[in-house]
Amino acid sequence: MDTPLPANIPPEVAHHLGYYVYLYIDPRTGNPFYVGKGQGQRALSHLSAEGESRKARILAELKQLGINPQIDILAHALPNEETAFRIEAAIIDLFGLDALSNAVRGWQSIQLGRMHLKELVTYYAATPVDIDDPVLLIRINKLYRHSMSATELYEATRGVWKLGERREKAEFAFAVFEGVVREVYEIYSWHPAGSQHYESRSADDVTLKGRWEFRGQVALDKIRSKYVDRSVKKYLPPTAQNPIAYVNV
Length: 249
Fold this sequence. Notes:
The protein has 249 residues and is an alpha+beta fold. It folds into 2 domains: 11-112, 3-Layer(aba) Sandwich (GIY-YIG endonuclease); 117-247, no CATH class. The chain contains 8 helices and 9 strands. Strand 6 and strand 7 form a beta hairpin. The longest helix is centred in the middle third of the chain and has 15 residues, at 81-95. It is elongated, with a radius of gyration of 23 Å.
């Protein structure tokens, strides 16, 4: 039997809810398909969603069947918006984007969300290292995911970047996330952006005029053991906007 939804959230209820986190659940399967956070009427704001998003599609399907989504309040009376953001991010990480219609992971989920304990230890306790090889430090904060494959990590690191001829003097490229070296690659050659094959990135993402990508492979263990999971923050000014830093080049 379909459960009717309230037309609005009464003010006295909204007062008690405060900041809250909510789930949209498909009653046909019992599975959540969207996680959100907010206050006031926010939990009802998606019911009129239109467009091509997965959330809008599911809501349209339910409407055609004369069925309302089930809306559950997962947590409420939260002390502030940041707490709601963190809970929302944790729930998205728990279910995964594949199971939800959320377009992106939650707030600061890459830095503070779900990850292996080893990743957390590396993140907070990485030992600083002195670099004595000619390298490019490549910050991949926007593309990095803790669960990414070796191919995805390599392809996120090797392109595509605004670089001058100085790039040719670098022997190694470091994949750096939040100041910690995640992998080391030996650079074989440089090529115009989008001219080499990618398995995990689209042509539109890598074909950018005036940018470069390298071809290479994971460095030998004697090099990797020096740098992987070590902190290189001292080479990366926190206010620097350029994702690239040269060391010994």
